[in-house]
Design a protein that fits this description.
TIM Barrel; single chain; alpha/beta
């Protein structure tokens, strides 16, 4: 088990442009937002209240100012609600359904893609390998092949397919990084990537070289911060220098930003979402033109 001291010391070994000097509580309080920009929220961040009050939670996220959502568990419907009915309710709140994390496979891709396009979703995102094996490089090559085939189906229907990383793809098997296999073995026109900043940090990897070496492959960023202990926290209260990451990501083609938080030790999940929303809007999106500092 990595200790807090060991985790923080390991972060110091990474690019100074990626990690800030310390966890200073920069997100406390609301900042002035002069021009609200597109920002989604992964509903996994508020799963505790989603499970008890789905519609009330969506209303709260809309009031906060999020412009769209990324649900999880899409299987042709959302949380047991038919896709069109769910979209109608989201439309009434001014929330776009940007895409969803989904257990998509080559076997269900056609059904999922057809229903996704019918409600105007931009992306279908495979969030992990599910039951696919992950023990060898050949396993990742086989997964990449399936991703290409899923991507072909999605392209046929007019929705984009993307893959969201966790941590296992960022751990070498021998001398090979599986994530590089996924990037090199998938076709740019069929598969894009949704980079999760938290898992890169947890595995002591800087995402920026991936952006620079694979321009155009990263369509989305999951903005997720990490604190001294290695836990997910409110954006701006942790160690990641999001201005640097975002500037590099934009140059590489990132077009959509999604807030996510794994656990919420600083308050309720809705409190954390609201604090993160204000930090992202005021410190990142309203200052993107400043680039790297």
């Amino acid at each position: 088990m990595t200790t807090r001291r060991e985790f923080f010391q390991s972060l110091k070994l990474l690019s100074l442009g990626l990690f800030l000097p310390g966890c200073s509580g920069r997100a406390s309080g609301e900042e002035s937002i002069t021009d609200r920009k597109e920002l989604g929220v992964q509903l996994w961040s508020v799963r505790d209240v989603i499970n008890t009050d789905l519609k009330g939670t969506l209303e709260a996220l809309s009031v906060m100012g999020f412009t769209g959502i990324e649900p999880y568990g899409y299987n042709g419907s959302f949380y047991g609600i038919p896709a069109r009915e769910f979209k109608t309710f989201c439309d009434s709140l001014g929330l776009e359904i940007y895409g969803s994390h989904t257990g998509i496979t080559i076997d269900n891709a056609r059904e999922y893609a057809e229903k996704a396009v019918a409600i105007g979703m931009r992306f279908l995102v495979l969030p992990s390998f599910g039951s696919r094996p992950t023990t060898s490089i050949d396993d990742f090559k086989a997964a990449a092949d399936e991703m290409n085939r899923i991507g072909e189906v999605c392209r046929e229907f007019g929705v984009r397919f993307a893959y969201h990383n966790h941590d296992f793809e960022l751990r070498k098997i021998g001398d090979v990084l599986p994530y590089e296999i996924l990037l090199s073995e998938t076709e740019a026109g069929l598969v894009s990537f949704q980079a999760d900043t938290y898992f890169f940090a947890r595995e002591r990897l800087d995402p920026i070289p991936f952006f620079e070496n694979h321009p155009g492959r990263f369509s989305m960023l999951h903005l997720k911060d990490v604190d001294f202990s290695g836990s997910s926290c409110i954006i701006g209260n942790g160690l990641i220098d999001f201005k640097t990451v975002l500037a590099s990501g934009r140059k590489a083609g990132v077009e959509l930003l999604i807030y996510e938080q794994e656990e919420c030790s600083e308050g309720t999940s809705l409190h954390c979402a609201e604090q993160s929303f204000h930090y992202i809007q005021s410190h990142l999106l309203n200052n993107e033109n400043h680039g790297r500092e």
